[in-house]
Amino acid sequence: PTSVDGDVPADRTFAKTKAVGDLVAIAALEGLATATEEKAPNLAFGAQTLKLPIDNETFRLLTLPGVDIIRRTLVDFDRTKGVTADNIPHVLTEVSKVQLGGVRFVGVPGELLPELAVGFDAEFAFGGPLIDPANPAPPDLSKAPSPPYLKAKLGGEKPVVLGLANDENGYLVPDYDYKLHPTKPYSEQATGDHYEETNSLGPKTTGLVLGALDTLLGWEPSP
User: Fold this and answer.
1) Buried b (16+ CB within 10 A) or exposed e, 83-119
2) What is the predicted pLDDT for the residue at 123?
3) Which of 11, 24, 91, 147 has the greatest number of beta carbons closer than 10 A?
4) Which residues of the chain have pLDDT under 50?
5) How far apart are CA 200 and CA 186, in angstroms?
């Protein structure tokens, strides 16, 4: 970004942080200058609880008693037994929806990759190829879901998708681009820049969260 003084600050500096903050503040003030008041807007809130399995072996270790680096209550899991297909630790989490007049927020309990919210098209290429031809493990876009995507499904005059809302369950990676290291899953990333998978709960997470969101977005509060 260019600062309000016309400078281009270096990356990873306070000056760059301030430049971004100043530009956001200016945009907000410009918006307020032409904003109209909405009298007595309808306010509604809804949430959907769900369970997510912890397939990430590193995350499992970090939840062990005595380690307690990740302090979460585990459900559907007997700590006295080993992890098996029938005894996998889960966490309880939730997705949420807030409506205030024409503004709608959907709360996603993790760090979702942007294409899950708005789709994956040429806009993401920023003038370059949509998929880097040098990428050794590119996403399989033939398996990408068709629109509408999360933001469009939310509807409303001003839909807003919020990540890290109410909870943090790691990265939410699209199924068609979820890749694990073949011999050291989660502890090392797969070829082709797949860091996010190492800090995800596992390959089932995204589908479960999106399914819960579909259920929640099917609810429309009374006016």
Assistant:
1) eeeeebbbbebbbbbbbeeeebbbbbbbbbbebbbbb
2) 61
3) 91
4) none
5) 8
Whole-model pTM over 0.85: yes
Q: CB count, 10 Å around CB of 149?
A: 19
The CA-based angle 143-145-148, given to 5 degrees, is: 165
User: Which pLDDT score, from 0 to 100, does residue 82 have?
Assistant: 85
HEC letters along the chain: CCCCCCCCCCCCCHHHHHHHHHHHHHHHHHHHHCCCCCCCCCEEEEEEEEEEECCCHHHHHHCCCCCCCCCCCEECCCCCCCCECCECCEEEEEEEEEEECCEEEEECCCEECCHHHHCCCHHHHCCCCCCCCCCCCCCCHHHCCCCCCHHHHHCCCEEEEECCCCCCCEEECCHHHCCECCCCCCCCECCCCCHHHHCECCCCHHHHHHHHHHHHHCCCCCC
Residue-level pLDDT at 122: 59
